[in-house]
## 1
Amino acid sequence: MRELNVNELQEVSGGVDELVIAGVTITGISVGMTAFAVGSALAAVGGASFAAATALGADDLGKELGSAIYDLFN
């Protein structure tokens, strides 16, 4: 029985591995960007909470909560 050459091995294994690696990398980047976008949105919510508490002259507890939320995501 003879050895398979590189092209035959790729056919048997289902194709070129680089394509799979590129797909995983692209998926990983997409997931990372989505997580970054969600984090940015949450940081904006925290910032808005802090700004609203400050603008409305809320009590110290409200300011502390807004500040804590803002700090958590920044």
## 2
Amino acid sequence: MATVPLHYVDLRAFSYATEDDKRVADALRYFLPEEAEIDRRVVLDRLTGLDGIDRVIDELDERVDDNCAFFLSFDKQAAYRDEVVLGDGLTLRGKIEAYPAKKETAVANLRDLLSDL
């Protein structure tokens, strides 16, 4: 698939009082480095290192909502070590392009995208 069928990608993390804010920011920068041109492809390219991508593809019906938004959570400590591991701490939300804007269309578009990674 030549284009990235996402309207936007949102990455979020929060830092507990016991965590170092800089390390949390560094974990987020693994997915979107400061020097990277803002491009959805940068974030998606990080998913190529995800061992559980087949699991994610199998779970797309549960990971895409009725508003065509896609959700993934990553292990914050692993991202700090420049690794991609499903877990908790960092949340990715992406709005999938789907015309018409229906969950089934969004799931099909995302399945094509993730299968090509």
